[in-house]
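Many introductory courses stop at the sequence. We go one step further.
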Amino acid sequence: MNPDGSGLHPFLPGWRPSSGLCCGQWTPDGRIFEFLLYDPPSTSRDPNMPLAAQIWALGERRRLFWRAPAEPVQLTSGPTQWNRPIPSKDGKKIFATGFTPNEELVRMDTMSGQLRPYLGGISAEGVSFSSEGRFIAYVTYPEGVLWRANRDGSSPTQLTDPPLSPFLPHWSPDGAQILFSAADAAGYMKGYIISSQGGPPQPILPEGQEAQADPNWSPDGRKVVFDTRMIADAKALDLRILDLASHQVTTVPGSAGMYSPRWSPDGRFLVALSISPFGLTLFDFETGRWSVLQKGGFDWPAWSRDGRYIYFLNAVDDKGVFRIRSSGGKPERVVDLEGFRLGGWMALDPEDQPMLDRDVGGVDIYALTLEEK
């Protein structure tokens, strides 16, 4: 806008409409306008994921700085995610903090009782095992690429390519397919199925308009349960069940405000997280009723292989991995996470040992020198 407030108009109308722009500032001489570009504008996998931001610049007077003066120029690239750019007093440098995302995969070691690097400590999340335990699927972080490999991590095969960014892959009971979700440009999480041998991912609901977040298989592989949360609006949600043969979708009774559903190994129960009140809840298909197992702000529910326990993560107050009997009772601590730099995920291996991501990323302050070309 003009200094008097008149002439309000969009900044760079029509330029990169699918990206988010933020945090602009002029150099002291007014020649260059520096800003952040978020691409994608919202997280592709989870609301807690840091946004990928790079520094761009536009010549206010359109001279000397670049060949195509009508277009902004990208000043940074790569895995580092940048915060607000601050120009130096002489306009020749930019000061900014940069975050380099990186995680280390760890697993509870039964011999030592300690969390140890797993699969070489790769930066990956969403590790899922095939039913017979021979193969794994995982998503590299922060690249967001789905891979399949042998259980020891050998012979990795890439299954997806950017810009699709899979989230929480799950093997089908027969090992032939892998189910996951990924965000579209509008902020909807959509469910996809891909062959475990590779090929194009197929949407589970090609015509579906509602979100399909955190999809999980039924024990027989004939149905998929998911929640309807959106990245842009996490309040309006419930649980739906898709019959893969008939393509019929039904709503789980009383599931308003529920998310992250997990089917029990015997198919009788669904465990899910609840928004109001926060807690771990259980749905019994035989009685059609919900019950509250434990109140609190928890994450990442996971069934034990025998269905007797439900594991969950408490990342807020009493930090740790806990488990509670599916029949109810007092939860018991499995892993103490005090002082642990927690990443964004937790699950179980075939022996019910917790797997987590340790945040090993770094934040530094940088001085970037500008050069005219």
